[in-house]
Amino acid sequence: MNKKIKKNLSLITLSFLLLFTSCKTTQVPADKFYKTVLVEHYRNKDYEYVIKELDSHKIGESKEEAGLWYLYGLCKFYTNKTDDALESFGKVLTYFPENYEVLNNIGVCLFMKKDYLNAMEFFHMSFYYNTNYKIAIDNYNTAYYNYSAKNNKSMTLKGLNENPLEYNSMGWFYYYLGDMPNAIYYFKKSIKEDPDYQFSYISLGYLYDEQKNYKTALQYLEKAKKIDANNPDLLNNLGVLYYHLNKKSSAKQSFLEAIELNNYFPEPYNNLGFIYLDENKLDDAADFFTKSLELNVQNNHLRAESYAGLAFICSMKNDLVQAKRYKNFAIKSDYKINEISYLCDVLQWDTKFIDLWKSL
Questions:
Q1: Distance between terminal CA atoms of the chain?
Q2: In sequence order, what are the residues at sequence separation of 6 or more whose Cβ sits closer than 8 angstroms to the Cβ of residue 64?
């Protein structure tokens, strides 16, 4: 069996570029050349034109120009220059290590190079940073099938090489199949093989968190932090677990540490907003919700939560007109937010907030 990634799965979207529509460089004015001309040529599949123009303008090595490297990588990918595309996406990843689209794209490039095992790792990381990104799951499973065929491995996974990355990848394969006992088995086997392989601790933390076994999840994520604390997504997830376990001070500290490492990361700003709202520090809460909205261009559910938080704040300040406006924005971002009881359950709020929401 040797399945190829379907065309619609390997198609790489442009939404990441929206982060860079205000990109400023003396050679490439964003409003004319970059935002309109280059992107329009890309959409018209005139990839060679985009490559030629970006080669002549020489993209700089900076966060502000990461969007240009991303566009360059897309065009290199679609002109079958996989190594160049991989290098370009790698430059973007330097500045945006948690961006799920970039991680997926690197996985696709590795897949094309038949490096299926490492491709699986990047597809999993892509899904890890955005669990709504189902393309990454499909790509992961396709990479696994190719890896299995290439190495003559049966679906029972007999004959696995004894290394932590492979065991961890197999754990995620079973996770996607819904087989949690085997997923846990392989995650733990990965840790046994290498106690310093951080990703397996994170994997177990994610799994137990999803099962609402917060104490066990916290144990694994705290171990992951001891191995390497320079991971803003890990720190944000730790903060959420602390919050669930009513350790509000530790939660706040963890969210602030995540922001210190990456101040472009919208999730911890949103989470801090709810902590300050819980503490009745309404102005501070509003600042954090607003900052999360400014940074968030991809996650509609997170946007809905931030708008819901602002709606609560305005309602508590008796500004009902603005509260209703934010409520409408929240529902427009993600209609599921209208069933506010789930959010109150997560935040451990009493029913007065449900009544407050329904009154708007």
A1: 56
A2: 20, 23, 24, 25
Cβ neighbours for 192, distance < 8 A, ≥ 6 positions apart: none
- Torsion of Cα atoms, 327 then 325 then 279 then 265, to 10°: 80
What would the two tokens of residue 95 be? 């500045």
Give me 329's structure tokens. Answer: 């924005």
CA dist 240 and 293 (Å) reads: 19
Cα Rg for the chain, rounded, in angstroms? 22
Tokens of 38: 């280059």
Q: Which residues contact 61 (CB under 8 A, 6 or more apart)?
A: 91
Which residues have CB under 8 Å from 181's CB, separation 6+? Answer: none
pTM of the shown model: 0.64
Residue 221 has pLDDT above 90, yes or no: yes
* 315-336 exposure pattern, b = at least 16 Cβ within 10 A, e = fewer: beeeeeeebebbbebbbebbee
**Which pairs count as long-range contacts for 284-293, CB under 8 Å and 24+ apart, including other chains?**
285/309, 285/313, 286/310, 286/313, 289/313, 291/266, 292/266, 292/267, 293/266
What does the DSSP 8-state code read for residue 271?
H
Q: H helices of the chain, where?
A: 7-10, 39-43, 47-57, 66-78, 82-95, 100-112, 116-129, 134-150, 164-177, 180-193, 198-210, 214-227, 232-244, 248-261, 266-278, 282-295, 300-316, 320-333, 341-347, 352-359
Structure tokens at 259: 């922001």
273 in Cβ contact with 306 (< 8 Å) = yes
**Over 217-264, what HEC string results?**
HHHHHHHHHHHCCCCHHHHHHHHHHHHHCCCHHHHHHHHHHHHHHCCC
Q: Which of 145-159, 210-224, 239-253 has the lowest mean pLDDT?
A: 145-159
Question: Measured between alpha carbons, how far is 235 from 241 in angstroms, rounded to an integer?
Answer: 10
- The distance of Cα 23 from the centroid of its chain, to the nearest Å, equals 22
Per-residue pLDDT tens for 129-184?
Answer: 766 666 777 777 777 777 766 665 444 444 445 678 778 877 877 887 788 998 89
| Residue 70 near residue 89 (C-beta atoms within 8 A) | yes
